[in-house]
C-alpha cells in the first residue's frame, strides 16, 4: 500500500539512506523546510485536482447546453437506416401488402375488432415487449400450423404480421396468405418496419404486466436500427 505522504513507511531505511537527524541537518532547518515543501506540494496538488474537476464539469455542462435542444437528432441515423431497410424488404416481397405503424395504431386505438395481430418473433423477444393484443407465432411456422391455431379467428378479419423489422413477418405472411384467405380472412399484411419502427415512433408496447417502453433488439448487429439505445433490453423487466 502506498502511503499518502508520497512513499512507503520506512522506505528510506529500506534503501539504506541516512535520515536528516543522522546527518545532523536539523540545525540547518532542512527538516522543517522539507515539511513546508511537502505541505505546499500537497496544497498545489489539491488545487490542480479542483481545477481539473471544474474544467471537466464545465465541458460537460457546455455540451449539454449546446446539444440539449437537438438531442433527438441522434435518433436520425437509426431511423434513416431503418427506412432504407424497409425499402429493401418491400422490394424483396413485391406484391405483399404492408401496413404502416400509424395506420395500425389508428385501428388499434379505435378498438377495431377486425384485426388479428400476429407476432412472428421468438419467445424471448415476445416476453420483453409486444404490440397490444398480439399473439405470438413461431416465425418458421408453416401454413398448416397457423391454420390450426387461428382457423376460427380470421374469418372476416384482417391479419397483420410483424417481427423486428419486417423480414420474418414478410416471409411468414407470404406462406400463409392463401390458406388464411381460404378461411375467410379479408387480408394478410406485414407491418412495415416491424416493432422497431413502432418503438422508434414511441408507440405503446406491453408485456405480461402492462405498458412497457423497452424492446428486444434481436441481436447486437440489429441494435443500430433502434433510435433509443437506452430502451433496449435482452431480458424482460423485473416483476
Summarize the structure.
The protein has helices at 11-14, 30-67, 76-92, 101-109, 123-128, 143-150, 167-182, 194-200, and strands at residues 98-99, 115-119, 135-136, 158-162, 187-191, 205-206, 211-212. The chain is of the alpha/beta class and 239 residues long. The protein has 2 domains: 29-67; 74-231, Oxidized Rhodanese, domain 1, CATH 3.40.250.10.
How are the SSEs placed, and which strands pair?
Layout: H1 11-14, H2 30-67, H3 76-92, E1 98-99, H4 101-109, E2 115-119, H5 123-128, E3 135-136, H6 143-150, E4 158-162, H7 167-182, E5 187-191, H8 194-200, E6 205-206, E7 211-212
Parallel strand pairs: 1-5, 2-3, 2-4, 4-5
Antiparallel strand pairs: 6-7
Helix pairs in contact: 6-7
List the helices and strands in order.
HHHEHEHEHEHEHEE
SS strand fraction = 5-15%
Strand order of the largest sheet: 1-5-4-2-3
Task: Classify the helix fraction into a percent range.
Answer: 40-55%
Helical/strand content category: alpha/beta
The domain count comes to 2
In the CATH scheme, what's the topology name of the largest domain? Oxidized Rhodanese, domain 1
Uncertain spans, ≥5 residues at pLDDT below 50? 1-45, 60-73
CATH class of the largest domain: Alpha Beta
Mean pLDDT: 79
How many β-strands, per DSSP?
A: 7
Oligomer: single chain
Amino acid at each position: 500500500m502506498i502511503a499518502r505522504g508520497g512513499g512507503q513507511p520506512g522506505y528510506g531505511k529500506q534503501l539504506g539512506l541516512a535520515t536528516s537527524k543522522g546527518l545532523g541537518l536539523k540545525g540547518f532547518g532542512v527538516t522543517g523546510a522539507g515539511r513546508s515543501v511537502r505541505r505546499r506540494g500537497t496544497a498545489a496538488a489539491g488545487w490542480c485536482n479542483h481545477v481539473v474537476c471544474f474544467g471537466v464539469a464545465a465541458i460537460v455542462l457546455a455540451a449539454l447546453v449546446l446539444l440539449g435542444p437537438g438531442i433527438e437528432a441522434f435518433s436520425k441515423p437509426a431511423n434513416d437506416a431503418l427506412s432504407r431497410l424497409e425499402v429493401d424488404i418491400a422490394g424483396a416481397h413485391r406484391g405483399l401488402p404492408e401496413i404502416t405503424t400509424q395506420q395500425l395504431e389508428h385501428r388499434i386505438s379505435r378498438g377495431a375488432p377486425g384485426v388479428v395481430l400476429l407476432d412472428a418473433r421468438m419467445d424471448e423477444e415476445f416476453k420483453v415487449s409486444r404490440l397490444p393484443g398480439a399473439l405470438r407465432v413461431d416465425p418458421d411456422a408453416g401454413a398448416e400450423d397457423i391454420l390450426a391455431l387461428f382457423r376460427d379467428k380470421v374469418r372476416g378479419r384482417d391479419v397483420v404480421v410483424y417481427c423486428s423489422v419486417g423480414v420474418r413477418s414478410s416471409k411468414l405472411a407470404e406462406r400463409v396468405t392463401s390458406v388464411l384467405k381460404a378461411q375467410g380472412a379479408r387480408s394478410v399484411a406485414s407491418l412495415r418496419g416491424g416493432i422497431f419502427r413502432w418503438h422508434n415512433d414511441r408507440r405503446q408496447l406491453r408485456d405480461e404486466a402492462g405498458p412497457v417502453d423497452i424492446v428486444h433488439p434481436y441481436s447486437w448487429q440489429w441494435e443500430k436500427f433502434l433510435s433509443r439505445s437506452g430502451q433496449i433490453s435482452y431480458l424482460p423487466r423485473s416483476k
